[in-house]
Design a protein that fits this description.
Residues 1045-1057, 1099-1111 have a biased composition (Polar residues). By secondary structure, the protein is α+β, with helices and mostly antiparallel strands. 39% of the residues lie in helices and 18% in strands. The chain has 37 helices and 31 strands. The longest helix is centred in the middle third of the chain and has 24 residues, at 434-457. The radius of gyration is 32 Å and the shape is globular. The two termini are 46 Å apart.
Length: 1121
């Protein structure tokens, strides 16, 4: 994270008074020219000075803009572009002498700036249609917003400070061209829309239609959250129905012929035209912000009847191409990627889209309307927005999904929180790495989740939702000064909610917000029969401790917390079937706690006849008492036990396991309410975990039990997991985790030889649920994804089977059979992601890594897979060509093909599968879908193909000048290790980290680039100019010759999977002999055609950019020439 050592963050008042003036209003009047990629116009800044001001100049921010004239109250004024090359890009304007007396006495002035912007390198992105590269694109443009400040000044002269907010009047003029009716979508409310006929240029008699749009934003907003999008958008209104009169209008804008996809994404294609985004708006305004829901004891009628509020009069969503980030939140609008839209038959993308759209809506309150007082308070804004969205997502997806997500996020944070500063970092700079922003958002949300649990324990019913409602109410009633919030203000709100526990709140903030790290608990228990007490030995460490030493971490400025204190809930399920909760007060790093045991305990001899009779009577009594209770897990009859290889607890070995009858307690749960963000090591016997899995209905208890049974593999554990997998009452994610855990129950452990029980049970489960069987023969049944839980479980079982790592040839044959006989003809949903899972699982079955096998198991030696590899490669090529002719959604099949081929090339020997040096380079060219290109780029870097000078030159050129902002961002992230987007105000759930990033990649690329600059002179031309010259020099006759030779080259790119193993070996040897010169030559030939790949098939309802086969052949022909 960039830091500014020794700097002190200032509040808004200090910042404004040190400057001498404040901005009250700004009006913008610009004309957009999509033909020349330029804008021109003027902007007027209304400025009010303080009485004690002594400055005779005014400064504002501007970069890239060519300022022609500056007027102060209509009088021309001198201006100096100070530090134009620096990041701030400030322009200093001298106030004319006739206006100085008024200015010194605290008067108002208007500074009008006339400027022009031509072919900007940042701040604004143009998407143009190209007949060869992108024929399905439509010309449009939109503003780009970087993390924190700095983007608005790239296209608009303004005071680009996050806390400098004012009202806005925005006027845009755009010309229609190429039969497109252009519109502009911007902040606020559109108060006027008109069209005029104007000449193309002063000397021409031809006219063009110019559309004029005027927007008004009465809510004070910073320039950072001002933006627009211009293009031939189609307008779709999200209607509420009869009860939406008091709610702001929600509108969607998309490019031509894509409104059907937009409607299907938000559910507007249904009869009632109702959307989940309308539900979210009503939830945030009505259900959540209603004080009666959080403060039932209030009697003031004005509070009980006061409705919720949305900061703006309307909310707009604009979907564009080649975005810098999936979602960018601006005042009253969001600019989103078109890839978030999906047809109604797509399942997997629907979840991610709903999460991102709800989070973007919540950001309108926290992140746009309410801002952090200091830069060190950024974590609070990110966390409040994410937590705000989480409340509705819990209602939308259910509590089980929320608990599962929280648990997974806690595991991620504990792994990430190593060597990081606390959430409140006083040394934080103005520019944030997006990885640190994601971490602050993720950990901050979990901290608020823990704080909510602790506040509710104090009998304060609303918890954190009530605190957030109080903050929003204060903002609505102008009691929140300048709508700025800090960590201290939030602390005061929490202490006001629980005045009797002020010390607890302050101690919590000091440990989790002002200190860094997460606790790592090691908990052991023991039953003291003499005292009838259950004893717990608890020790803790910090994840930020260096070799277990806190002092070394303090010396590095990390500020880890030495000891985390607070209450921890322990639930003991005793032998009488009752559960007893106990609260352990953690106060030290190593301490002992005792809790009472309630069930009467009598020491008796276990081997007597009397004991056995009592045990049998107890079993009968337990069966009678549990007749009406819920016992989870699929019931396997005695006749099916041999077929399923089912082993109950206590059947295989005559020990004291059984069903834990007569044991001291059934199971123990530590941190039952998930109120601690921590790593926890707590061990109990495996049969107790099995009892917890089958008797505890809490999804967190089930998840913990599944994880531990996977780490304690046995025949009994695999059988219990099998029952979980087959029982539809379990949450689908728990069933998927059970399948992953069953894959570990193979091989030899410290206790016994499990053989392949987990693998056999997984295969048997898949055949039972999703195949048509006849004895030993089987064929996959036709896909039916109407039950979404079964859909996810089906994918989970396939992936678990590929991780079993036993009988590899059988696994490959099984997955190949699923690919060959996959039938989706009668399915109402798409199988794109399911096929992609099968392809990824096929590659996973061949790789040699054993990361999913536990350490105490012996790995089986892989069998000869050469024959299976030939068949697998043929199947992969078949699906690749199928995706070229009939593109899947976002080309997920091709992405899975590239990842699988890359994994095979990296894992298998060169004799089995030689590296194809041209395959990934072709897929990395512009014209393919960004997901395809990113997969290819990751493969290029992972296979060390980038080490040649020409490859380094190619990667640098793509990172700097590629038309796709997504590719630029991700490639820069790989090379430099830094992420420049998305904006820090957008809480995103999905993790986008690239796992193939190399720690020394940036230094190696820089070294190769330096050598390249020494040996190859560009002769004064930049990269863009050279590429344009090469493109313009291509003769048309060359294209004609290429088309005539297309048929002869088709045979050269056919799959080579049918060749024999000996031929592959010889080809591999020949490639080694020729050395690296040929490799450099191939990469060098690829570079001139980076921007000119063949035109892809146009799919109005999808974002498919995969070219057709003959056009792909034309590209390869150019490379070979």
């Amino acid at each position: 994270m960039p830091k500014t050592q020794g700097t002190k963050t200032r509040s808004y008042e200090e910042y404004a008074r040190s400057r001498g003036f404040k901005l009250t209003h700004q009006s913008v009047d610009i004309e957009i020219d999509l033909c020349t990629f330029s804008i021109k116009g003027s902007t007027t800044l209304s400025i009010s000075s303080y009485k004690e001001v002594s400055n005779e100049t005014v400064r504002f921010n501007s970069r890239q803009c060519k300022i022609s004239e500056v007027q102060v109250n209509g009088t021309g004024s001198e201006f100096i572009i100070a530090a134009e090359q620096a990041y701030h890009g400030e322009v200093e304007v001298k106030i004319p002498e006739e206006h100085l007396p008024k200015w010194v006495k605290g008067g108002n002035i208007e500074v009008k700036v006339y400027y022009k912007l031509e072919k900007p390198q940042g701040g604004i992105h143009y998407v143009q249609r190209d007949a060869r590269i992108a024929p399905h694109f439509h010309p449009h443009m939109y503003t780009i917003h970087q993390p924190t400040i700095g983007a608005a000044r790239l296209w608009l002269p303004s005071i680009d400070h996050l806390l400098e907010r004012c009202t806005w009047d925005l006027k845009f003029t755009v010309s229609n061209f190429a039969k497109y009716n252009m519109i502009v979508v911007s902040n606020g409310v559109c108060i006027e829309e008109s069209s005029v006929e104007a000449p193309i240029d002063p000397s021409s008699k031809e006219t063009v239609t110019k559309n004029i749009f005027k927007y008004k934003l009465d809510v004070p907003t910073s320039a950072h959250h001002i933006g627009f999008a211009a293009g031939p958008f189609e307008h779709v209104v999200f209607e509420y129905g009869d009860n939406g009169k008091n709610h702001p209008e929600i509108s969607g804008y998309c490019l031509p012929r894509r409104s059907a996809v937009l409607k299907s994404t938000f559910g507007l294609d249904l009869a009632d035209r109702w959307s989940f985004l309308n539900d979210a708006m009503k939830f945030f305004m009505d259900e959540y912000q209603n004080f009666h829901n959080h403060f039932p004891n209030l009697t003031e009628p004005q509070l009980l009847k006061s409705p919720g509020f949305f900061p703006y009069q309307s909310y707009k969503l604009v979907f564009v191409e080649n975005t810098f980030a999936p979602v960018t939140s601006l005042a009253s609008m969001s600019i989103c990627s078109f890839d978030l839209l999906h047809p109604p038959e797509i399942i997997d993308q629907a979840y991610d889209t709903r999460v991102r759209m709800v989070q973007a809506l919540a950001t309108q309150w926290f992140g746009v309307f309410i801002l952090p007082l200091f830069m060190s308070d950024v974590w609070l804004i990110l966390s409040l927005a994410n937590y705000f969205a989480l409340l509705f997502l819990t209602k939308l997806f259910g509590k089980n999904d929320m608990k599962y997500r929280i648990k997974k996020d806690m595991e991620r944070v504990c792994q990430m929180d190593v060597g990081r500063p606390p959430l409140v970092d006083r040394n934080i700079g103005n520019q944030l790495d997006n990885k640190d922003v994601d971490f602050m958002r993720l950990k901050g949300t979990l901290v608020l989740y823990m704080l909510d649990i602790r506040i509710r324990r104090c009998a304060y019913y609303p918890g954190i939702p009530g605190v957030i409602a109080s903050i929003l109410r204060a903002s609505q009633n102008n009691r929140l000064k300048f709508n700025l919030i800090s960590t201290r203000i939030f602390t005061d709100e929490c202490t006001a909610a629980v005045p009797e526990r002020v010390d607890m709140i302050k101690r919590f903030f000091q440990q989790w917000i002002y200190s860094s790290g997460c606790p790592k608990f090691d908990i052991k228990y023991n039953f003291n029969r003499k005292k009838m007490m259950v004893e717990f030995q608890i020790s803790q460490q910090n994840t930020n401790a260096i070799d277990g030493k806190i002092g070394d971490a303090f010396a590095c400025g990390i500020k880890p917390m030495p000891v985390f204190t607070g209450p921890m809930i322990v639930c003991v399920h005793e032998a009488d079937g009752k559960s007893y909760e106990h609260m352990l007060n953690i106060q030290g790093s190593n301490e002992k706690h005792q809790v009472p045991y309630h069930t009467k305990y009598k020491r008796i001899r276990r081997n007597t006849k009397r004991f056995k009779e009592k045990q049998a009577a107890a079993k009968e009594e337990m069966k009678a008492s549990n007749a009406g209770s819920v016992m989870w897990g699929y019931k396997i009859s005695d006749s099916e036990k041999y077929e399923w290889e089912f082993t109950a607890w206590g059947e295989e070995v005559d020990d004291e396991k059984g069903n834990s009858t007569g044991e001291t307690f059934e199971w123990i749960r530590v941190n039952e309410d998930n109120g601690w963000l921590c790593e926890m090591q707590f061990n109990q016997p495996d049969y107790m975990w099995a009892t917890q899995l089958q008797k505890d209905i809490d999804i967190l208890a089930q998840y913990e039990a599944v994880q531990m049974l996977g780490n304690l593999p046995s025949r009994e554990a695999s059988s219990t997991l099998l029952q979980t997998l087959l029982d539809e009452r379990y949450y689908c994610k728990v069933r998927m985790e059970a399948a992953y855990a069953m894959a570990k129950c193979v091989g030899r452990t410290n206790r016994s030889d499990l053989g392949s029980i987990g693998f056999n049970q997984l295969i048997k489960t898949f055949k039972k649920l999703y195949c048509i069987t006849n004895g030993e023969k089987y064929v996959p049944d036709a896909n039916n994804f109407s039950n979404l839980s079964d859909y996810f479980v089906k994918k989970g079982i396939v992936w678990a089977i590929s991780n079993a790592r036993h009988h590899q040839a059988e696994i490959v044959e099984f997955i190949l059979k699923l690919l060959r006989y996959n039938d989706n003809t009668e399915n109402e949903f798409s199988d794109n992601y399911y096929v992609a899972t099968l392809i990824s699982a096929l590659g996973n079955a061949f790789t040699s890594d054993r990361h999913n096998i536990s350490d105490n198991q012996t790995e089986y030696i892989s069998e000869d897979i050469s024959d299976s590899l030939e068949e697998a490669l043929q199947e992969l090529e078949r699906y690749r060509y199928r995706d070229m002719m009939f593109p899947t959604y976002r080309n997920v099949t091709t992405v899975a093909y590239i990842d699988t081929k890359h994994k095979l090339m990296k894992s298998l020997s060169n004799e089995l599968l030689p590296e194809d040096k041209n395959l990934f380079l072709i897929f990395s060219l512009y014209g393919h879908h960004p997901d395809v290109r990113l997969a290819a780029i990751r493969a290029i870097i992972s296979l060390d193909q980038w080490k040649t000078k020409s490859a380094v030159k190619y990667l640098k050129e793509v990172a700097m000048t590629d038309p796709s902002l997504t590719i630029r961002r991700q490639l820069q992230r790989i090379i430099t290790g830094k992420d420049l987007g998305p904006p820090c105000w957008i809480p995103s759930y999905k993790d986008e980290d690239i796992t193939l990033t190399r720690p020394h990649l940036h230094a190696e690329v820089k070294q190769q680039s330096t050598e390249l600059q020494r040996t190859e002179s560009m002769k004064g031309e930049n990269v863009v100019t050279e590429r344009k010259r090469k493109y313009e020099g291509v003769d048309k006759t060359e294209n004609k010759k290429s088309k005539r030779q297309t048929s002869t080259v088709d045979s050269q790119i056919q799959p080579e999977a049918s060749t024999s193993k000996t031929n592959k070996s010889s080809s591999g040897k020949s490639s080694k002999k020729k050395g690296g010169k040929k490799k450099e030559a191939v990469v060098q030939e690829v570079q001139p055609v980076v921007q000119t790949p063949p035109a892809p098939i146009e799919q109005p309802t999808q974002s498919a950019e995969t070219p057709q086969l003959p056009q792909r052949t034309l590209l390869i022909l150019k490379m070979k020439k």
